Amino acid sequence: MAKTTKATKAAQAALDAAAAAAKDAKRLIKTLPKKDAKKVRSAADDAKDAAHASKKKVARKPRKVEKEAVAAIARLDKAVDKAEAKLAAARKSAAKKRASDAKKAAKKRDAAKKTEAASAKASARKPAKATAKSSEVAEPGLYETPSPEVATGAEPTALPVADDLSTLTVAQLRARARDSGHAGFSRYTKAQLMALLSS
Q: Positive or negative CA dihedral for 170, 175, 179, 181?
């Protein structure tokens, strides 16, 4: 049996290390994106080929075999480090993007709440203004001009009701409807008010 030297033992250890590195790289490739996996796969294949040196070659040139195996492991380590750095950078940028998207969504929600609160305040103020205006108009005859017959004291001539109502404004028609005891006419048009009062 041939005597094993230190160089042969070192070469065999380098071959075993190259085989183990190639095996680990194959597991890592499954987790990498296609482009990075392709580069690592190429380096892993080189390490695997270097690990399969023949026994004859190891016996004849152990230092050369060891050197080739160590160089293949170095190339594989470099490719793995590069791929892992890219993967870490991609994860970091994805985390930043998620945080940025969350901030934007929170800002949109806050803006929507502020807009909703402002519109609620505005709608709360509008009815108060509307009631103030309706109370101003509510007094019957406030904006009506007296007819010449009333101003002179003569008896008014009887006009047909439809003609008399058509000369009045919507506010005056509403005031008359209120005075006559009608209810639910606040959204009526002029024609509807006239029909209500003439009936």
A: positive
